[in-house]
């Protein structure tokens, strides 16, 4: 599994050692953006070059080859490539969506300020949300997911799996704060909302649905060692102008984003 290979800053992968070990691999963000289709073909063909390396990767649970796609990755020549991938029923798409727009935006702001999504605790990072910027964000966010729905229309459950981020994160959230606040929403679709009942059970169920979808053997989900929860502060405490935002959106469909509980990732509605 690769990571954000189309990130504007770097080609991110959970298996970056493959790049160094692969003869002829000399891609950077500039050459990638000039010829994204050729880049993607070479990326997905990368394999371990030794039997020992292959066993090591298999031991880490590398059962499928893919990458993460976020709305901001759509630009220039990559747009056509992504459109073809999403419209192709032979390509398996996992649609991961976070239900609370404010959670997504706050996570993004913290990461933009610090350069970290999942590697640091960011409890003390002060946030002030610009009203117009947040309105633009939620409008774009919803449009992107509607566009994804259009591209995925008519594809069956063998091609598309929709998962709530909030349910999946529940499988990893524990007293150590694993995962929890780590994320933007990934490749989009019509999902969203959090499950009720036992969060851990919902999360394990979500993880097993992903494993079954990819044809991988069922196994307890494990968080990366570098993954920590961004913050345990409620959004009301972490956002300095929270009350002003809540008032401004009180009569909109986004009012539920501000009905927060004790944990910065919990919410009621969306």
Integer tally of domains: 2
Strand content: under 5%
Helical amount: 40-55%
Largest sheet descriptor:
2 strands, parallel
Mean pLDDT equals 77
Give the helix/strand class. mainly alpha
The rough form would be described as: globular
Order of helices and strands: HHHHHEHHEHHHH
Number of helices: 11
Radius of gyration: 19 Å
- Low-pLDDT runs of 5+ residues are 49-55, 175-184, 188-200, 261-270
How widely separated are the two ends? 30 Å
If strands are numbered along the chain, what order do they take across the biggest sheet? 1-2
Organism: Monoraphidium neglectum
Protein name: Sulfotransferase
Question: Could you provide a short overview of the structure?
Answer:
It contains 11 helices and 2 strands. By secondary structure, it is mostly helical.
Give an account of the 3D structure:
With 270 residues, this protein is mainly alpha-helical. It is 40% helix and 4% strand. It has helices at 17-21, 29-34, 36-45, 51-59, 78-87, 101-114, 131-152, 165-170, 199-214, 235-238, 242-248; strands at residues 93-97, 160-164. The protein is globular. It comes from Monoraphidium neglectum. InterPro entries: P-loop_NTPase.
Please outline the helices and strands:
Elements: H1 17-21, H2 29-34, H3 36-45, H4 51-59, H5 78-87, E1 93-97, H6 101-114, H7 131-152, E2 160-164, H8 165-170, H9 199-214, H10 235-238, H11 242-248
Parallel strand pairs: 1-2
């Amino acid at each position: 599994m690769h990571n954000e290979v189309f990130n504007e800053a770097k080609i991110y992968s959970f298996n970056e050692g493959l790049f160094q070990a692969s003869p002829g691999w000399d891609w950077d963000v500039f050459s990638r953006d000039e010829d994204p289709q050729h880049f993607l073909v070479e990326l997905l063909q990368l394999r371990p070059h030794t039997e020992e390396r292959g066993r090591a990767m298999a031991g880490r649970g590398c059962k499928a080859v893919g990458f993460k796609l976020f709305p901001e990755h759509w630009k220039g020549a990559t747009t056509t490539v992504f459109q073809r991938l999403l419209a192709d029923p032979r390509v398996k798409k996992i649609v991961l969506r976070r239900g609370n727009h404010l959670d997504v935006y706050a996570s993004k702001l913290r990461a933009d300020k610090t350069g970290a999504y999942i590697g640091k605790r960011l409890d003390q990072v002060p946030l002030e949300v610009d009203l117009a910027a947040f309105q633009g964000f939620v409008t774009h966010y919803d449009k992107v997911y509607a566009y994804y729905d259009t591209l995925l229309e008519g594809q069956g459950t063998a091609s598309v799996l929709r998962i709530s981020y909030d349910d999946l994160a529940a499988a990893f959230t524990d007293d150590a704060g694993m995962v929890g606040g780590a994320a933007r929403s990934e490749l989009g679709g019509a999902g969203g909302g959090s499950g009720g009942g036992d969060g851990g059970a919902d999360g394990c169920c979500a993880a097993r649905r992903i494993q079954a979808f990819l044809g991988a053997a069922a196994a307890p989900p494990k968080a990366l060692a570098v993954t920590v929860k961004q913050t345990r502060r409620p959004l009301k405490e972490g956002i300095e102008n929270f009350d002003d935002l809540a008032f401004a959106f009180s009569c909109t469909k986004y009012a539920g984003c501000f009905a927060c509980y004790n944990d910065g990732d919990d919410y009621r509605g969306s």
